[in-house]
Write a structure and sequence with these properties.
The complex is a heterodimer. Chain A is of the alpha/beta class. Chain A is about 40% helix and about 25% strand. Chain B has one domain: MetI-like fold, CATH 1.10.3720.
Chain lengths: ~240, ~220
């Protein structure tokens, strides 16, 4: 589903990704962990071409992120993204936020989109909050609306960029629960996170990134119980 | 001295004709200015380097010279320079358009840039084209921030029309001056002229406040 072929990314003279080679298959729940500045977010943002890669190639469902804009729009339709700071459109209600994608990019009628949006809001436990504006919702609720908004365009793959980092600890749980349910339904996901417990329970595969490379790639439980390197061991101690 | 109301009453029809012209100039000019300003503002915010520089040169050129000089140039210098003769009213509208356009360009650029990048990214991540994201998401958010300075510019441009007295366009100020040339009633006429400007700008302020309330700033 996602294929990195020796992908590099520079910001000016800073190398953020240094030759990433890996494949993510349909149905996998890949959790990406690592210290800040290790390139996790950039890794994720290259997949839906919010960052353009500097070298190598990156295929999403067979389409290259280096392709024409039509291909890039197609990739973005297939890879929904949830941001650290939610980025809900403030001038629209929760329901309108979720309806927006289906109407604007899938060309659905408003009635049809409303049905879908209501169903998705129910799925994230917010069917009663559809008429609220983002400013009237808690962070956890906003993030759940943002997840519903991404799901509304019917992606085949979901990208989560530190979805709980901006939330108070007591609000994280409700967001993680929604992501966990999605995983249980078989959605392919790549989740950049600092939640080691969540990574262990929900992830089917864990990537540990450091200094722009994927240092470890394996089963979360295995990596956590038997840390393959001192660097990883230190990291685990810092986050948990 | 005695404030003579009959003079005012007699002059009102002429003054209202002048006011009509003032409003026509300000309204058409501001629409032109908004279009120019939006284009230049977009170039300043997102344009390729060449467009950005062109927009910057335009803004500096217009902001850096008095509008009286600009309109004199349009009306008196262009015919000599390029054999282009522009009627006074047209010159006045063009002057307001390029002037308000230059100021609005900076205001619009600021409004666009004040919209957090995350909203643009959220739209792009849904598979929308950058243009569509601009029209559907960033534009409406920027417009809300634009309302107060836009109101400012409307009021400034309305009052700026009074300088077209220098090219003989019969707007409100010019009409007032002509009436005084005939009856020498400076106090009455200038008072009424001032009150008419105040009334029109007052209506503009109220309208903007209504729009602002309707599109509550987020």
């Amino acid at each position: 589903m996602v294929e990195f072929k020796n992908v590099t990314k520079n910001f000016g003279r800073v190398e953020v990704l240094r030759g990433i080679d890996l494949q993510v298959n349909s149905g996998e729940v890949v959790v990406v962990i690592g210290p800040s500045g290790s390139g996790k977010s950039t890794f994720l943002r290259c997949i839906n071409a919010l960052e353009t890669i500097s070298g190598g190639d990156l295929l999403v469902d067979g389409l290259s992120v280096k392709g024409r804009s039509k291909d890039i729009y197609q990739i973005r339709l297939e890879a929904g993204m949830v941001f650290q700071h939610f980025n809900l459109f403030p001038q629209m209600t929760a329901l309108e936020n979720v309806m927006f994608g289906p109407v604007q990019v899938r060309g659905m009628s408003r009635g049809e989109a409303r049905d879908i949006a209501q169903r998705l809001l129910k799925k994230v436990g917010l069917e009663e909050r559809g008429d609220r504006y983002p400013s009237q919702l808690s962070g956890g609720q906003q993030q759940r609306v943002a997840i519903a908004r991404s799901l509304a365009i019917k992606p085949k793959l979901m990208l989560f960029d530190e979805p709980t980092s901006a939330l108070d600890p007591e609000l994280r749980h409700e967001v993680l629960k929604v992501i966990q349910n999605l995983a249980a339904e078989g959605m392919t996901m790549i989740v950049v996170t600092h939640e080691i417990g969540f990574a262990k329970n929900v992830g089917t595969r864990m990537l540990f990134m450091d200094q722009g490379t994927v240092v470890h790639d394996g089963a979360p439980a295995h990596l956590i119980s038997e840390p393959p390197s001192q660097r990883f061991k230190d990291f685990l101690q810092h986050v948990s | 001295m005695q404030f003579d109301w009959s003079v005012v009453l007699i002059s009102l029809p002429d003054l209202f004709d002048g006011l009509k012209l003032t409003i026509i100039i300000a309204f058409s000019g501001l629409i032109g200015g908004f279009i120019i300003g939006t284009l230049a503002g977009l170039f300043r915010a997102y344009g390729p380097p060449l467009c950005n520089v062109l927009a910057q040169v335009y803004v500096e050129l217009i902001r850096g010279t008095p509008m009286v000089v600009q309109v004199m140039f349009l009306y008196f210098a262009l015919p000599v320079l390029m054999q282009i003769r522009i009627p006074g009213l047209t010159a006045a509208i063009i002057a307001i358009a390029i002037n308000s356009g230059a100021y609005l360009a900076e205001v619009i650029r600021g409004a666009l840039q004040s919209v957090p990048r995350g909203f643009m990214e959220a739209g792009l991540a849904m598979g929308m084209s950058p243009g569509k994201v601009l029209i559907k998401i960033v534009g409406p958010l920027a417009f809300r921030r634009l309302i107060p300075p836009l109101g400012n510019q409307c009021i400034i441009s309305l009052k700026d029309t009074s300088i077209f007295i220098v090219i003989g366009v019969g707007e409100l100020t010019r009409t007032g001056q002509e009436i005084i040339a005939g009856n020498f009633r400076a106090v009455e006429i200038w008072s009424v002229v001032a009150l008419i400007y105040l009334a029109v700008t007052g209506v503009m302020t109220l309208t903007l406040r209504l729009i602002e309330r309707k599109m509550r700033i987020i």
